[in-house]
Every structure is written in structure tokens, then in C-alpha cells.
Amino acid sequence: MNAIEFESSKLGSKEHWDSVYARELASFREIGDEGEIWFGEESMYKMVQWTAEHVPYSDDPTILEIGSGNGTLLFTLHEEEHYSPKQLCGIDYSSDAVELAKSIALQRGAQEIIFNTCDFLMQDPPPISQEHQSSRRIDSWDLLLDKGTYDAIALGEKDELGRPPVFQYPSRVGRLLKPGGFFLITSCNFTEEELKTNFATQDSGLIYHSSIKYPTFTFGGQNGAKYSSVAFQKIIQ
Ligand SMILES: C[S@@+](CC[C@H](N)C(=O)[O-])C[C@H]1O[C@@H](n2cnc3c(N)ncnc32)[C@H](O)[C@@H]1O
Fold it and tell me: Where is the Methyltransferase domain (predicted)?
């Protein structure tokens, strides 16, 4: 088994996420609970800080979160770091996740953030502005974010050729980014080295840029951190 192969599990299936978000949507409607912050607040705030430092809001960047769930990461970028809501977009293949994020956005007064149902592996995200649409460019995003989605996809079923579902993920990232644009990913299943191996490839057109530091622990003589957050940049040709 190489670095990008895992045994499949229900966490990699759409049915699993549909049932998670059907429950979370019902709970939001019933008691106003916004649901889980995946990997907790620390990793989310670290991603927000990294973004503020490297892709400042003053440049009015276009930002896409892949597998945006309840949308908390995008709400935080807007509410705490002043990113324009019109430039923020979340996609998720679970329509109840999108419904949940839209409902929370309405309650938070952030309804200009765009949330769309979209399978990242199969479809391109919709353009977020007229300018975006008229340019007809697919590679129009300044920053792509992933918190837990690559991990989930890696647990999906292999295709008929025996390929793990994540095999096409890095090239799809490269395809959507502007030259010089960034991809920031946080994972709990892949180490920093594995992420570098999987994403910094000729096919994706991405190169390693930087990583976020987390407290480390030692177990069985090995040093490690609970999460890996790594940033890549699309090569300017
Ligand atoms: C671990 S959750 C993380 C959610 C969110 N990023 C967060 O931090 O709270 C993984 C998310 O990826 C979504 N997802 C999985 N595969 C996807 C795909 N192929 N296209 C779009 N979304 C996907 C799931 O529906 C789920 O919302």
C-alpha cells in the first residue's frame, strides 16, 4: 500500500456524509446548533492566520473551500479577517451540507458567501462573478482550501481500474488555481511528507510552499503531530 492508499471505509462514502448533514441540518433547525468544527478550532484558526498572511484580504482574492461542510472556515475568514463574502465559495457534494451552510450564512448575515452542491472530483465549481464567468477561465482561484475533505475522499472505494479515488485530486486542484495561486490543506490521515509527495507533482503543477506548525508528541520513539497543514503554490510558467 503506498502513501495515498487506504482501506475504504464508510467515511469515504457520500451516503455517510448525506446522513451526517441530514442530522446536522435537522439539529440546526431544531436548536440552532451549527454542528462540528472538523479538527477543532486550533487548526481552523491556524488556516485562517496562514491565509491572512499569504493571501491578504486587501488583494480581494477568490477563495474556494473544497468540501465546505457547515461553512465555518469561510464564515471565520469573512467575520474575523474581512474577506469579501462575494469572493468566498464553498462546495460540497452533500446537498444537506450546502443547505446547512446557507442557513447558517443567513443567520450570520453572510448570505453573500456562495455555497453550491458540487462533486469536486466530477464537476467544476460554478463561476462566482460575472467577470469570472466572462473570462471563461477555469484556473481562476487565488486560494483553494481543504480541511478534512482529501482525508474523506481517500477512504472511498477504488474505481474499476483499482485506482484510489484521490488519484485525480491533485491535478484537479492545479487545474482550478491561477498561476501563482495557493492550495492549503489540513489532514489528519496524511503526514506532511506524504502530502508533499502526493501534491507536489508534475501533473498537478504545484510546488511546496510552506507548512503550519503544530505541537508535536512522541509515541513509540516517533515524533509526530496530530494534524498536518501544508501549503502548495501553482507554478507560474
Ligand atoms: C471531514 S468533512 C470536513 C468538512 C469541512 N471542511 C470542515 O472542516 O468542517 C469532509 C467534507 O467533504 C465533503 N466531501 C467529500 N467528498 C467530496 C467530494 N468529492 N466533493 C465535494 N465534497 C466532498 C463531505 O460531504 C464533507 O462535508
Answer: 61-201
Alpha carbon nearest to ligand 1 atom 27, residue: 69
SS3 assignment, position 125: coil
What is the model's pLDDT at position 192?
Answer: 96
Is 60 exceeded by the pLDDT of residue 1? no
Q: Give percent above pLDDT 90 in the chain.
A: 79
| Ligand 1 residue neighbourhood (C-beta within 6 Å) | 17, 38, 67-70, 72-73, 91-94, 97, 119-121, 147-149, 152-153
Q: What is the pTM of this model?
A: 0.94
- What's the 3-state SS for 4-65? CCCCCCHHHCHHHHHHHHHHHHHHHHHHCCCCCCCCHHHHHHHHHHHHHHHCCHHHCCCEEE
Cα 159 to averaged position of ligand 1 atoms, centre (Å): 19
Hey, how many other C-beta atoms are within 10 angstroms of the C-beta on 147?
26
* 108-139 pLDDT tens trace: 999 999 999 999 999 999 888 777 777 778 89
